[in-house]
Amino acid sequence: MLEKTDQYREVTVKTEPIFQGKIISLQVDTIQLPNGGTATREIVRHPGAAAVLALIDGKMLVVEQYRKPMEKFQIEIPAGKLDAGEDPMAAAARELEEETGYKAGKLRPLSAFYTSPGFADEKLYVYLAEDLVKGESAPDEDEYLAVEAITFEQAQQYIREERISDAKTVLAVYAWQVYRLTGEI
User: Fold this and answer.
1) What is the pLDDT of residues 69-127, one digit of tens each?
2) Is 141 a catalytic residue?
3) Catalytic-labelled residue, pool 3, 71, 141, 184
4) Are 9 and 25 in contact (CB under 8 A)?
5) DSSP letters of 78-140?
6) Strand partners, 66
7) Measured distance between the N- and C-terminal CA atoms of the chain, rounded to whole angstroms
8) How does the average pLDDT of the chain come out, rounded?
């Protein structure tokens, strides 16, 4: 196993802001390499996001929506970005209700991971929603999605067909598989 060491740390020499949007920003950092040379790193700054594995009656709640960057429809677990200073668990509860109409009686952390650490600092928190109660959905005004509860077999098929191809939803399906096999997550 590799030891933690500062030997390979990249030191920022200069940061040049390139773009500031509503959700992300882009900067180019000039860094000093461990050998004394310099290089550039393009970095996307993102506030983070939360997602929910919600199981009801042996099925997983998902949303299907068009994803412009990929130019296709995707089936995903409910998720969304963190508002400034927002607790990830509160964001998960909010997104579940906004997108599906369901409220979670209980949320448990499953995992947290960086989505693309080679160029972005987005950290995504995934929760298991339990004790679901049906309510009213209220998607964002620019969010058009369909809600469905799918079986485990459908989820596996959607992964094979790349209708499910984002990391958070694939992780959720595999967590669900472990849960089905062991009764534990």
Assistant:
1) 999 999 999 999 999 999 999 999 999 999 999 999 999 999 999 999 999 999 999 99
2) yes
3) 141
4) no
5) SEEEPPTT--HHHHHHHHHHHHHSEEEEEEEEEEEEES-TTTB--EEEEEEEEEEEE------
6) 73
7) 27
8) 95
